[in-house]
Amino acid sequence: MFRFEHPDYLYLLVLIPALAFINLVISQRRKSALKRFGNPELLKTLMPSVSKFRPIIKFYVMLLVLTALIFTIANPQFGTKTETVKRNGIEVIIALDVSNSMNAQDIKPSRLDRAKRAIYQMVDKFSNDKVGLVVFAGKAYTQLPITSDYASAKMFISSINTDIIKAQGTSIGSAINLATNSFSAQEDINRAIIVITDGENHEDDAIGAAKAAVAKGIKVYTVGMGLPKGAPIPTGKGGNDFMKDRDGNVVISKLDEQMLIDIATAGEAEFISANNIRKGMNDLVGHLSKLEKSEMESKIYTDFDHQFQYMALIALILILIEFVVLERKNKYMKNVNLFKEEEDK
Question: Of 339, 110, 75, which is closest to residue 234 (Cα–Cα)?
Fold first, then answer.
């Protein structure tokens, strides 16, 4: 198993394109300033040792150094040893709606972003339980099989967006059916499905799917993302560009609260409103904690080999390259022109 011991440091990678952009802007301004100062061809003859490309090479080598150092402090690791441990807990599969309507912003910053934050909050409160993730729109897919690796769960959650499923719609019933069949084969263990959606089910019999889950001893909770008054759905093109119907009217996506209440009732569980999502998720974790815990076996990685030294070595080699490459032309190579013969033609 590969992982980063400190994955939060990887956010520093945003510095790389930012610094590259800043350098590009500065380079353009420098060129403009030189043109105002004098004829570029004349200036080139006055400064024969000045290299056009060496400073650029040195800059991008230093960007690679910075990249390697970021990976170094994040500490890449490979799991080398697994151990079977026994824990008392339950199994929970989260079914997350990723249809376009989840981009609506009646809940800030958007329904989907708020849902992802709520899932983070819930996973942080798990200890000995197993968690899995199903995503759905017009179809449902398993995003993360049932696991006790909460770090992996968070990583998968962070990568979710509304583009991962092309078939649009809100097939809640399919998501519940898939989740029902995605638990482990272990018997005599309490299980729950948590459906997080705006409730606009247009595809199938979600209530029937919830009843089928209950028949297998699985509770089905629902979390409503959105407000009854609704909001337009952004197209993703920026500005105030929203989805429209065939008549050119802006589509308003509204929370179907009653549908989610009915699903939760059929699932012999609770409906959580997004009006106060923090309190709602705390209540949900409270409900889950009341379920009887069962002994479960989990295989976990208990020994990891650190790989940061390889990234540190790459950073050191790049620093040496940057040191060796001078900004000015080498006096022994300045008269070499590999393209002279082609230019003469």
Answer: 110
